[in-house]
């Protein structure tokens, strides 16, 4: 079982306990466990196999009770507590609690008062105006429908990695490449497309369809197979000979519109392009590598993240494909939490972990007092916390804060406190439901504060869970430029906020961007790669991303306010 599946189970238990009106501490314990498990880089089953219950209990947020749950699931494939809890409520009611904007309390109330026990009935009641907040609930239902079958990129990436690691063991495999939207770095992924180069496909097909993560086999052929994985995701495998690798990689990476365009270019030349190569008549004239494929069309190489029909062909024809930012260009992470608020590790632990990633600096940014759910600190507490930030040998630890932008655009701390930080990150954690103009003005007012340097998770969206708040990003970017505020690309796979399209716009407007993880544990520092994918999809180069600068230059650039 994957960590994401354990996490899902714990979230569900917390919701069931809420339906039952259980002790809030108990509910929160499951939520915390779910969050921490979700973002763990090591597999829970492996931890248990090597270190047993003790190993599990060492994970932040996992106590004895939950460690025993994990053990039971690993041993029996089931959890008795969950099964019996589930029996206490009708299925429809449980589904209701998964609709964004609906909590267990509302679900119970609606069931009691209106007999609503399914999403269908909820939708009908909302449309008939029978319930409060109907517009919001309809949006939630719509979001849920749209997100069905879409997996977060880290979830897709970890499943692809499992498959690749298993297939690698087979003799005769020369190359394995996960393609599709995962390779393009899209924020959600529908299914996995795995490409393999081998002159002997039989054993590859056998191994693929027998993987332990496979729930059922949809098709098994000589060179292609499709399966449904245990998490519900579809995975397709394709085996091609070496001479077709480039054309196949290109074909299976997409996007569809990009591929159609390549085929049209081929037609104009009297050629044909398929997953097997570029052909003139029956003769293959190209496509052994992707580089070769683009070259045959007189095009510069187009990185997978740009293959979205957003101007990449025009740029490639003019040799104007940018040299995109890379993970190795990042010199520091500018958004993270510690034990002082809702993080799982100490400042020193975060610094050590960042040092291992080869960073030159980090910025510690704990929450301020208004974010009560995250135990935000008062000004006095924060100054005490700051006193603990000392440079660890080999890495610069900067004192920062994630200060709440209040309803009227003022900040949660007065200037006397804000001026004591190296950098100030500002963000919105409350009063999401505001008209667009008001929200935009609120944020711009915060930008005018001379101590605000970075605007974090600019739209507040949570992918598949929460729509962005209403905000005029065009105006926000222009104001960011005017007041010298950098805009964050939050690298957490649930956020990826700013989005790719807006990254591109920020670049056009000359707005500074930072890519940060918002890590709540040492493990989450590794989420940087997903933010980089989004930045690359937004055509960003090293020079557009401020945390590619050394620490002196970074501070100089942001302090010019
Ligand atoms: Zn935040
Ligand atoms: Zn944060």
From TrEMBL:
Concerning CDD domains, the annotation shows: NT_POLXc, PHP_PolX
Q: Which GO terms describe its biological process?
A: DNA repair
**Reaction(s) the record says it catalyses:** 2'-deoxyribonucleotide-(2'-deoxyribose 5'-phosphate)-2'-deoxyribonucleotide-DNA = a 3'-end 2'-deoxyribonucleotide-(2,3-dehydro-2,3-deoxyribose 5'-phosphate)-DNA + a 5'-end 5'-phospho-2'-deoxyribonucleoside-DNA + H(+); DNA(n) + a 2'-deoxyribonucleoside 5'-triphosphate = DNA(n+1) + diphosphate; a 5'-end 2'-deoxyribose-2'-deoxyribonucleotide-DNA = (2E,4S)-4-hydroxypenten-2-al-5-phosphate + a 5'-end 5'-phospho-2'-deoxyribonucleoside-DNA + H(+)
Q: Which residues form a coiled coil?
A: none
User: Any keyword Cytoplasm?
Assistant: no
What Enzyme Commission number(s) apply to this enzyme?
Answer: 2.7.7.7, 4.2.99.18
Q: Which UniProt keywords apply?
A: DNA damage, DNA repair, DNA replication, DNA synthesis, DNA-directed DNA polymerase, Methylation, Nucleotidyltransferase, Sodium, Transferase, Ubl conjugation
What is the protein's given name? DNA polymerase beta
Q: Which organism is it from?
A: candidate division WOR-1 bacterium RIFOXYC2_FULL_46_14
């Amino acid at each position: 079982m994957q960590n994401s599946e354990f996490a899902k189970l714990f979230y569900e238990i917390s919701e069931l306990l809420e339906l039952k009106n259980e002790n809030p501490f108990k509910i929160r314990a499951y939520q915390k466990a779910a969050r921490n498990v979700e973002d763990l880089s090591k597999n829970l089953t492996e931890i248990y196999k090597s270190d047993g219950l003790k190993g599990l209990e060492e994970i932040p947020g996992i106590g004895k009770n939950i460690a025993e749950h994990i053990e039971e699931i690993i041993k029996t494939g089931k959890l008795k507590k969950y099964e019996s809890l589930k029996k206490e409520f009708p299925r429809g009611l449980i589904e209701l609690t998964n609709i964004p904007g609906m909590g267990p309390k509302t679900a119970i109330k609606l069931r009691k008062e209106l007999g609503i026990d399914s999403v269908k009935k909820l939708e009908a009641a909302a449309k008939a105006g029978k319930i409060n907040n109907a517009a919001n609930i309809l949006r939630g239902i719509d979001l849920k429908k749209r997100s069905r079958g879409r997996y977060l990129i880290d979830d897709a990436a970890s499943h692809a990695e499992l498959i690749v690691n298993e297939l690698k063991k087979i003799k005769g495999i020369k190359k394995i490449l996960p393609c599709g939207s995962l390779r393009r770095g899209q924020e959600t992924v529908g299914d996995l497309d795995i490409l393999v180069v081998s002159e002997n496909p039989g054993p590859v097909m056998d191994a693929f369809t027998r993987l332990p993560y496979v729930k059922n086999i949809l098709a098994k052929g000589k060179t292609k197979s499709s399966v449904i994985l245990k998490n519900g995701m579809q995975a397709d495998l394709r085996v091609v000979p070496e001479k077709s690798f480039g054309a196949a990689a290109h074909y299976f990476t997409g996007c569809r519109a990009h591929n159609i365009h390549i085929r049209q270019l081929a037609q104009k030349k009297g050629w044909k392009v398929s997953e097997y190569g570029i052909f003139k008549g029956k003769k293959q004239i190209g496509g052994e590598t992707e580089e070769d494929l683009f070259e045959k069309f007189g095009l510069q190489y187009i990185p997978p993240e740009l293959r979205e029909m957003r101007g990449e062909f025009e740029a490639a024809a003019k040799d104007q494909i940018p040299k995109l930012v890379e993970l190795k260009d990042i010199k520091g992470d500018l958004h993270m939490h510690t034990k002082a608020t809702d993080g799982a590790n100490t400042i020193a632990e975060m610094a050590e972990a960042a040092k291992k990633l080869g960073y030159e600096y980090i910025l510690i940014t704990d929450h301020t007092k208004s974010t009560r759910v995250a135990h935000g600190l008062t000004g006095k507490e924060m100054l005490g916390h700051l006193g603990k930030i000392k440079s660890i040998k080999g890495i610069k630890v900067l004192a920062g804060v994630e200060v709440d932008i209040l309803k009227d655009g003022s900040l949660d701390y007065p200037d006397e406190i804000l001026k004591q930080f190296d950098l100030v990150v500002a963000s919105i954690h409350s009063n999401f439901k505001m008209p667009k103009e008001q929200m935009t003005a609120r944020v711009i007012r915060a930008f005018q504060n001379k101590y605000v340097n970075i605007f974090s998770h600019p739209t507040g969206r949570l992918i598949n869970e929460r729509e962005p708040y209403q905000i005029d990003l065009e105006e926000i970017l222009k104001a960011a430029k005017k007041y010298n505020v950098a805009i964050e690309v939050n690298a957490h796979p649930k956020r990826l906020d700013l989005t790719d399209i807006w990254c591109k716009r920020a670049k056009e407007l000359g707005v500074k961007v930072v890519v940060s993880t918002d890590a709540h544990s040492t493990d989450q520092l590794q989420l940087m790669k997903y933010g980089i994918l989004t930045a690359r999809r937004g055509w960003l180069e090293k020079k557009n991303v401020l945390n590619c600068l050394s620490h002196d230059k970074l501070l100089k650039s942001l302090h010019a306010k």
